[in-house]
Request: fold
Amino acid sequence: MVKIVQINVKGFDNNFSYLLIGKNNESFLIDATGSKEEIEKTILKNKVVLVAQLLTHNHPDHCELIPYFESKGAKLINFKEIENVPFAEKVVEIAGVKVRAIFTPGHLNDAKCFIIENNIFSGDTLFVRGIGTTAYGGNDALLKKTLEYLRTFNPKMILWPGHDYGGTTSTLKQALDNSHIKPGKKARDNIKKKVGEYEKVRGKKY
Ligand SMILES: [Zn+2]
Reply:
């Protein structure tokens, strides 16, 4: 069974990185971002080797540490090949763990969710309370379709979001039932301000 470590990496805005630990002390990251120190501390504490990394979507606050961990030998698997038809998917095995990547556009045109055992890693597609904005390269109609598609999965699945917006984890059903919740004006203004700063320092796309 996979071990999931949710790392509060701060970053842009209460971001999460995830360390997934599989067989033979091998591990991989989802969304390497925020505090490098927190991630490295978690890797050391669990005495694991990092072999790969995944990315939920190409917003700078989710991928800023990809080059750093690539330089440490963790290859990025970016699933570009499924980014054509919505809900196309591909299964790979990393560290003995089966990862099902699903193309779930909406929040961004390259967004993916990862299903691992009874867990879904949703990036900014779905939070514990609310959904990611489509204001930065997204599409409302596609996001609506994606959320409808997520309704077809086991409602008891555990949701692991990309940010702590209203909670760290919940069931998929609880999150979908909360998906109508909108952030307040203060939160939206705050994001707008920070996005401007982030885009200025943005490096390459993945
Ligand atoms: Zn995003």
